[in-house]
Structures are given as structure tokens and as C-alpha cells.
Amino acid sequence: MQNLVDLNWAAVIVAALVGYFPGALWYSPIGFLKPWARELGVDLNAKPKGVGVKVAIGLIPALIAAIVFAMFVGPHPSLHHALVTAAELAIGLIATSFAIQYLYEQRSLTFWLINSGYHLLQFLLMGLVLALWP
């Protein structure tokens, strides 16, 4: 695992942004908004409140995730290493953690697939950035 000082900070920040913002499409009407909202009981006709603040706050854990991921793969990982590590972390840690939580919350398999799938995409995109950064 890498030291924080050794990280490529520009790549980490871009990786956090690139991994975070596809969520806007993933959880949109052209993505999985309807089944996700149905599972949560969210009224899609109601005007959402505080979206801007939530987006801004959401960038903080996205940056932390990118930092920790970069610590796992190092400052200049190969594409193979970055993508395999991304899949291992997303499936082996995030998806399995969601599985335990959703089991007790009685969430559906669909909900698990939507949320776990987004985090797999997030880490794969972060891996691409970190591996392809000059």
C-alpha cells in the first residue's frame, strides 16, 4: 500500500470526479432511477430538496475513495492492475457489504445490483484514470 506522499494527486482528484459524476446518469431517468426510487419509496413527482448540497458533500467520500484506491494501486499502475483491483474492491468489499446490509433491510436483488453496479463502474473509471494518467 502506497504512502499518501507518493500519490499522483492530480490523477487522484480527476479520478474522484470521473468516478463520481457518472452517478448522475446511472441514477437518472435514462439509467436506473425508476427501480431505485421504487425500492426506496421515493416520489419522483416531488421536487427534490438540497440536491446541490448533496452533490457537494458527496464529493468528499468520492475523494476519500479515490485516495484509498490510489493507495492500493500505486501512483502509476498498469491498466490491468488498476482494473482488476477496482473489480476486486467493488465486488469483494462494497457489493458484499451492501449484500449484508440489504439482507437485513429486506432490500431487493434489483436494488443491490443497481447500487453495487454503480460502485463497480465508479472504481473501474477511477482505475482507468489512474492507469492512463501521464
Topology:
Elements: H1 9-20, H2 23-26, H3 33-40, H4 51-73, H5 79-105, H6 109-132
Describe the structure.
It is a single chain. The protein is mainly alpha-helical and 134 residues long. The chain contains six helices and no strands. It has helices at 9-20, 23-26, 33-40, 51-73, 79-105, 109-132. α1 crosses α4 (51-73) and α5 packs antiparallel against α6 (109-132).
Tags for this model:
134 residues; mainly alpha; globular
N-to-C CA distance: 21 Å
Low-confidence spans: none
Radius of gyration over alpha carbons?
Answer: 16 Å
Percent in strands: under 5%
Mean pLDDT: 96
The residue fraction in helices comes out at over 70%
**Morphology call:** globular
Structural class: mainly alpha
Write the element-wise H/E pattern from the N-terminal end onward.
HHHHHH
How many beta-strand segments?
Answer: 0
| Helix count from the secondary structure assignment | 6
How would you sum up the major sheet?
none
Question: Can you give me a brief rundown of this structure?
Answer:
This protein is mainly α and 134 residues long. It is built from six helices and no strands.
